[in-house]
Design goal:
The structure holds two protein chains of two kinds.
Chain A (H helix, E strand, L loop, with lengths): L11 H25 L3 H4 L12 H10 L5 H32 L5 H12 L7 H11 L5 H5 L6 H14 L2 H9 L4 H12 L1 H17 L2 H6 L8 H8 L7 H35 L1
Helix pairs in contact in A: 1-14, 3-14, 4-8, 4-11, 4-13, 5-8, 11-14, 13-14
Chain B lengths: L2 H9 L9 H12 L1 H28 L17 H7 L2 H32 L6 H7 L2 H4 L2 H11 L6 H8 L14 H28 L4 H9 L4 H12 L1 H16 L3 H6 L17 H11 L3 H31 L2
The chains are: A mainly alpha, B mainly alpha.
């Protein structure tokens, strides 16, 4: 009598399979670190070296002092952009999600349907027009051009509406209203404390996506002194003579914050992705 | 009469006085208008930075719009689109995009399914494994692609070294970037690597919602684990499979980062010396910001949009048939 997979204990084969996949997942990141800590010889060796060297500080110093890459500034810029976008997404999407989940107003369902429709619009395909728009606003080449398109997300509104709908009983909102609380007060004192887990999930997803975004920052910040770290990385990798230990030292530095986030918020991230799929 | 007397009189008013006019209007404002104020930021910001560019893209596609020649303005009519029809660069890029798309999507979703099936067991350290498979997802594409660029280099790359272990290409190491098929495989490997874990979690969440007695019924019929996977699990998670197929279609046909950074000189957006791996998204970048012809780039992005819609629809239909066929 066989059981449902959920009840079947993993065999040594399942663990071996999982371990293999995990090893393949981790290897490029590990190898990034190996090259980042090595000298030039290590990159041009057969068999290639797989043990970290002791040149990390040397390579990092080179990356951070390169004249036309602005690597330090780019990391700060990435942080500013990712934090601004995350904060704004959390605020506006939780406000809208609250309204859609708990407030009665004309057009609620129709407008929510519009939000869901906008989920399917691939933003990337408007890049040419977005570039022209940013040009008219005089924003190209500035961080605001990277931040503005990310300030809200349809997914965020949708996710918040789902979560608030389940997490907060209607009676609680009604009770607060009878006590004389206005809508914004209910948002702040009833909703926000109850949706902290959802804010953490959406915050993680948004931060990761924003930090890793490459195409739009490349277009709008091209050739300026204000790249994000992803653009700075592609600058590092451009040119006729590319120093790989330097490129991967930079790549490693730009990856570390996300690995730290994964270590801290991995559980929430997993939950967020799994919850996002079901609806 | 002192002031205190006045205060005493006031407190003796009935506690539940009818709301005064100001309060009434405040209440009305709070219930009628505030909901719209709460959702307004989303719609306003989305209209400006999301919807408007897409519509305006259509206008730009019908006009002359060159960054290097601002005097060349006015309607181009269908000129940009007719040019597209005979532009071999565009059709070559389309073939590349589809080639890489198939090489990355099919293995990606199949392996994700297997991985999800493993994760769906009763495991020790289940959370650890789930978090572990997300490492590629959080790693920036710009960083991991640069690693893979070294990994797939001709002379000292790990990929060639591994191939040499099994006795392949010992005299003549494989130049991954030189040939069409090898560059496609290299790029598809990067895409697969990044998205397998993410998709596996999507599948896992659906798998865990399957009622257990369905499996018990199948076990009575003598279905082994493999048959269970294909005859029960996959049909029952079909909506999520459909979701991932559409997501990967949209993502795969817009592929930009990997082919850009696989190039030895990313800034040129060449996609190899013979453009053998240049994708549509890369070509749009090249036409728009290297050739400075924004009108033509906009036309290309509209064409790509239509292609995505068609392919997504075909894939959706196919997936539905596959799932409903048995």
């Amino acid at each position: 009598m066989s059981r449902a997979p959920q009840d079947t204990p993993g065999t040594w084969k399942s663990y071996l399979g999982l371990f293999a996949i995990l090893a393949v997942s981790a290897f490029p990141v590990y190898w990034m670190f190996v090259i980042a800590t090595s000298n030039d010889d290590a990159v041009m060796k057969s068999p290639p070296s797989v043990i970290p060297g002791d040149q990390l500080m040397v390579n990092l110093r080179e990356v951070f002092t390169l004249q036309d890459v602005y690597f330090t500034a780019s990391l700060i810029n990435s942080l500013i952009v990712a934090l601004a976008v995350t904060a704004s997404t959390l605020f506006f999407c939780s406000l809208a999600g609250f309204a859609f989940a708990k407030l009665r107003f004309k057009g609620n369902n129709v407008l929510m349907f519009v939000v869901i429709l906008t989920l399917t619009v691939p933003n990337q395909l408007g890049v040419v027009a977005l570039y022209i728009l940013m040009g008219k606003l005089g924003w190209n080449g500035q961080l605001i051009a990277v931040i503005a398109p990310g300030l809200v997300s349809a997914f965020g509104v949708f996710y918040m509406r789902q979560f608030i709908g389940h997490a907060i009983p209607d009676e609680l909102v009604e009770a607060a209203r009878i006590d004389g609380a206005l809508t914004l007060r209910i948002y702040w004192t009833v909703v926000v404390p109850a949706i902290r887990p959802a804010l953490a999930v959406l915050g993680l997803l948004t931060f990761v996506a924003t930090w890793n975004d490459f195409q739009w920052p490349l277009i709008t910040l091209n050739g300026t002194d204000f790249p994000t770290s992803m653009v700075a990385l592609s600058d590092l990798a451009s040119g006729n003579y590319v120093v790989y230990r330097r490129v991967l030292a930079g790549a490693f530095v730009a990856t570390v914050p996300l690995i730290v986030l994964l270590l801290i918020g991995g559980r929430q991230l997993v939950r967020g992705i799994m919850e996002g799929a079901l609806k | 009469m002192s002031l205190t007397d006045v205060r005493v009189v006031r407190t003796e008013e009935p506690k539940h006085a009818p709301p005064n006019r100001a309060k009434f209007w405040l209440y009305r404002f709070d219930t009628k208008t505030v909901p719209y104020l709460l959702i307004a930021p989303f719609f306003v910001l989305f209209a400006i930075f999301g919807l408007f560019p897409i519509i305006f893209n259509g206008v730009v596609a019908l006009r002359h719009w060159r960054l290097d020649d601002p005097t060349l303005t006015g309607w181009a009519g269908m000129e940009n689109f007719t040019k597209l029809a005979s532009d071999t660069d565009f059709w070559d890029a389309l073939v590349n995009t589809f080639g890489i798309f198939i090489l990355s999507t099919v293995p990606q979703l199949l392996i994700a399914l297997m991985l999800a099936n493993l994760l769906n067991r009763k495991l020790r350290g289940a959370t650890f494994w789930r978090i572990g498979v997300l490492l590629p997802y959080v790693t920036p594409v710009a960083a991991s692609t640069l690693v893979f660029a070294v990994f797939f280099s001709r002379d000292y790359g790990l990929a060639n070294w591994m191939l040499s272990l099994v006795g392949f290409g010992e005299e003549q190491p494989l130049d991954w970037r030189a040939d069409t098929w090898s560059s496609w495989i290299a790029i598809a490997t990067m895409v697969n690597w990044k998205w397998i874990g993410y998709n596996a979690l999507l599948y896992l969440s659906a798998m865990q919602a399957i009622p257990k007695d369905v499996y018990e019924a199948a076990a009575v019929d003598g279905a082994g684990p493999w048959r269970q996977l294909w005859r029960i699990t996959v049909p029952m998670i079909q909506p999520v499979v459909l979701f991932t197929v559409i997501l990967s279609t949209i993502g795969g046909l817009q592929l930009f980062n990997e082919p850009m950074l696989f190039d030895e000189n990313p800034a040129l957006a060449n996609g190899g010396y013979d453009h053998q791996w240049r994708t549509i998204a890369q070509l749009i970048y090249k036409v728009g910001w290297r050739d400075l012809n924004l009108g033509y780039a906009a036309a290309m992005s509209w064409a790509l949009f239509l292609i995505i819609l068609i392919v997504a629809a075909i894939n959706a239909l196919a997936t539905r048939r596959l799932g409903g066929g048995k």
